[in-house]
């Protein structure tokens, strides 16, 4: 009734003004220019739009000196086409210079058609779809639309969705027109992208079944393309079914969302974003609202509205009157604009001559109003405009966070610091449910003491618990640890198209965070979000340490194989025999034993078999020999042997240290390539883990071959846990290797000293804290992880749980201070054994030579062997004597004879040595010394 009374009041006022205009023609010396408007007779914001229209005209008239706009208003039903046509014709008959409205698509087309025929400017302020078949310039010639052009507005929504990184979303709409407004959004997804779900609501006010279906699907991004009067009720019911949590995000496409009172939903934890065409804090809108309130007060009517709740259509009416008045003013300055009364049904149809010029001027004119810059294209559509992106906040209601325009796209007005502060503030006093799984050292059950009862977070201990505890202290939230029921990390089943483990727990909204050794993978990133990595790692091989064999005393022989030693010995004997044979055949190696006697008929050869063996032995030992061959053939043999000895000696000495320091192992595996090349040692991975996915999806031939081998082996080489893999390696007796992540491998090798890591890392990845997609807390938690890393706390945590707690550090090897390549007696003891055996043999030979000499002395001197032995022993043990006498107690004649004989022998020996030189010392000449007898005293 109140609205009806207001409408009747406006009708009465219109009649009075019309009579005055007709009777007088001018008011205060100004020419009257009537303008018409058509509004709907419904109790909605059309009343506010009419107020905006009338008082915009009033403000124009206050500043104009030569003309005055006279509003003529008519009312129609939104779907009454017949009555709408009659009202337009009535306005034309009254001489209106423009028709504003109506806001219904059904009736606006009729008004536009009549205005086109009569060439009266038609100005609308609502969304108008593009006609099928495209735009017709002739049909659009007299229409100006201040509402944002449909395609550009749809592009703004698409840009916002892309900026928010929504990979999938659900659209809820209530009319076909609404779906048409989102055509650009429906086109931004390609065939390979996640599907877009479209759901329509009817007149049934219960939206809960629809919302529950969306919740079951796991969708968290929702676009609301519904009438503004339905938005609040839908969000109320969404709150009832827990669809207004922190992981749900809503975008409201209506440009009037800011007019809705969201007071009861301000403290919901979901993100609600909307678009707004005007800056509600601008001076223009505050001034316009002041005019509306003061004008209604003069008419004894109460009207209250805040600038933050002004409807878009009302603001557009204000701007439409302003730009139309500007066109009239500037065109009237060159040619007086006069209204004309036109008839719709006249046979002689007349058109208003100024209409087309006014429209063309408005198309090229740029204005700035309450709704920002106003620029039209050739079809009279508003193709350039600015939008405010607003977000519902707890303190201020809708708050501007960004702007959009067709040129620059989304441009945020708030800093990252403000965003971070807002998120941290929302974390205060919040309790997170943190999902995890048992696995050392990340999370383990705490060992109970006698009589101790553990509950809640006190049941656990480990790296994950202390990590989340450190983050909670930085951000100020509480947390509750829970174990995932199936104990799995999270893998996608392509048959059932479902996730399991920690990922499923997050998707089902049963946890806010997931903290453990959960690897960040591409597949998991499609389902959940991750923070920055708190630990980097890679895949490596767990294997049993090689069994070190007992050290061999004769390991110094290792640089050469047994075959080489046999070939070398054979070559040694062969070359010696060849040298002996060739020297017998070569004339140059036969020499005169008495060089002073040139007529000597006898020559001798010093190269008996003993000397040949000695020469080759001296060569291979690198010591050489005092006697050398003289013939070309024998020299060539000796030279080739020396070359061979040099090469063998160099190779032996170069490799000796390496072979002596190298431990002799019972088997060698140094890399994944070694595993792939053999079939004796089996190897496996954790079932359903990221390591298994790595081999499944790898394009590297070695890893593909390894995966094929793992799949084909029976019994299965896959394990249900890392502990099972560790036990299989221990029990496998170096016949099983387990591929696992290096962090877990390092933890195991710190506690099981008979296990070790083989090779390097096969890949590089990281552990991250997982959370539902689009979680608002990801940035804050990542920042806390980065802070702990910079402060060294992450390193301290790893050292604590890897090397200190639960038996860590017991397998640390103490480095050898003297160097890792030192050789022990166990490596080179064989050299000492060989030396001792050689010395022992030399000692035995020396004893035998001594006894043989005693026998010769006894025979030659005709004394008993015992006396000869005692005399020789006595002389040998007297270390103070440095010269040996020739005789002792024999008769002078005998002594003289012996002395003469010795002198002659020595003289002959000296002459031989002088003749031959020092280069030739024959065994025969050496044996001549044995022919010299010794005389001993007889007691």
Describe the structure using short key phrases.
939 residues; alpha/beta; Rossmann fold; D-Maltodextrin-Binding Protein, domain 2; 5 domains; 9-stranded mixed β-sheet; 8-stranded mixed β-sheet; 44% helix; 16% strand; disordered N terminus; disordered C terminus; signal; transmembrane helix
Characterise the protein shown here.
This protein is α/β, with parallel strands linked by helices and 939 residues long. It has five domains: 29-146 and 310-382, Rossmann fold (3-Layer(aba) Sandwich); 148-276 and 385-414, Response regulator (Rossmann fold, 3-Layer(aba) Sandwich); 415-537 and 763-802, D-Maltodextrin-Binding Protein, domain 2, CATH 3.40.190.10; 542-546 and 664-756, 3-Layer(aba) Sandwich (D-Maltodextrin-Binding Protein, domain 2); 560-591 and 603-659, Helix Hairpins, CATH 1.10.287. It is 44% helix and 16% strand. It contains 30 helices and 34 strands. Strand 15 and strand 16 (397-405) form a beta hairpin. The N and C termini lie far apart (167 Å). Mean pLDDT is 81; it is low at 1-27, 663-667, 816-823 and 886-939.
